[in-house]
Write a structure and sequence with these properties.
This protein has 253 residues and is α/β, with parallel strands linked by helices. The chain folds into 2 domains: 86 residues, Nitrogenase molybdenum iron protein domain (Rossmann fold); 109 residues, Rossmann fold (3-Layer(aba) Sandwich). Helix content is 41%, strand content 17%. Strand 10, helix 9 and strand 11 form a beta-alpha-beta unit. The termini are far apart. The model has no long low-confidence stretch (mean pLDDT 96).
């Protein structure tokens, strides 16, 4: 999906296909330029609710996109789907991110700023995020952690993912890294990995207190916590408050 996008002037009609990048665009001061977002884009609430929905991240409404006539579409390799992106790229300028690590996210923020005519704002934001994570403490001891993202089937964040990179920066060992990027697992496989800490994400599956209690009973040797998935997986401007959230979380261990 990699492609270069060269615009003769800053875009005036932007569609974002990724929730975390939508929030970034608004935080860069592009309120007037954003014309379309996905149904999953929820931050900032007032602004996203007032924009035209173009469908989901993996099921676009091409008829609505054509009506909006964008001069820039922002997507992501992991969160969107190849067929849809290729169809859009045949008609519109489409810029794609591919995020696996914090440095990838910082580079994306700077690139989006340059592309949209907000380079100084983006550079300042990226610098603030980099400084916040540089000062992020590591866990007091090397916890063996499992980060779960889905309930049925059980799915986890494995290696070569943005979540894996964040866990590593917190000093947490991802015990499910050897199973691939987003593996489906059995309870027996999770048990065999011997996690001391099981993190139940609020997204994409909305784990709740009842799930925490169930996992605590199922894995009595592990400490089970509910966590805000946006703070571990959103790679746009939410990284700035995420650093403080992660710092506070580490203090509870």
């Amino acid at each position: 999906m990699g492609r270069a996008v060269n615009l003769p002037e800053p875009p005036q009609r932007i569609i974002s296909l990724v929730p975390s990048q939508t929030e970034l665009l608004f935080d860069l001061g592009l309120d007037a330029e954003i014309v379309g977002v996905t149904k999953f884009c929820r931050h900032p609430a007032a602004q996203t609710q007032s924009r035209q929905s173009i469908g989901g991240t993996k099921k676009f409404r091409f008829d609505i996109i054509d009506q909006l006539q964008p001069d820039l579409i922002l997507g992501n390799k992991e969160e969107n789907y190849r067929e849809g992106i290729e169809r859009l790229a045949a008609r519109y300028p489409v810029w794609m991110s591919d995020i696996h690590t914090l440095p990838d996210a910082l580079a994306m923020i700077r690139s989006v700023g340059a592309l949209t005519g907000k380079p100084e704002t983006a550079d300042q934001l990226a610098d603030q995020i980099a400084a916040a994570f540089a000062n992020l403490p590591r866990a007091a001891r090397p916890y063996r952690a499992a980060y779960l993202i889905w309930q049925n089937p059980l799915m986890a964040a494995g290696n070569d993912t943005f979540i894996h990179d964040i866990l590593s920066r917190m000093g947490l060992e991802n015990v499910l890294a050897g199973y691939g990027r987003y593996p489906q697992l059995t309870p027996e496989q999770i048990q065999a990995a011997q996690p001391a800490l099981i993190l139940l994400s609020s997204e994409p599956y909305p784990f709740r207190e009842k799930h925490r209690q169930s996992f605590t009973a199922q894995f009595p040797r592990a400490h089970v916590e509910l966590v805000d998935g946006e703070m571990f997986s959103w790679y746009g401007s939410r990284l700035l408050p995420a650093a403080n959230y992660l710092r506070q979380f580490l203090q509870t261990l």
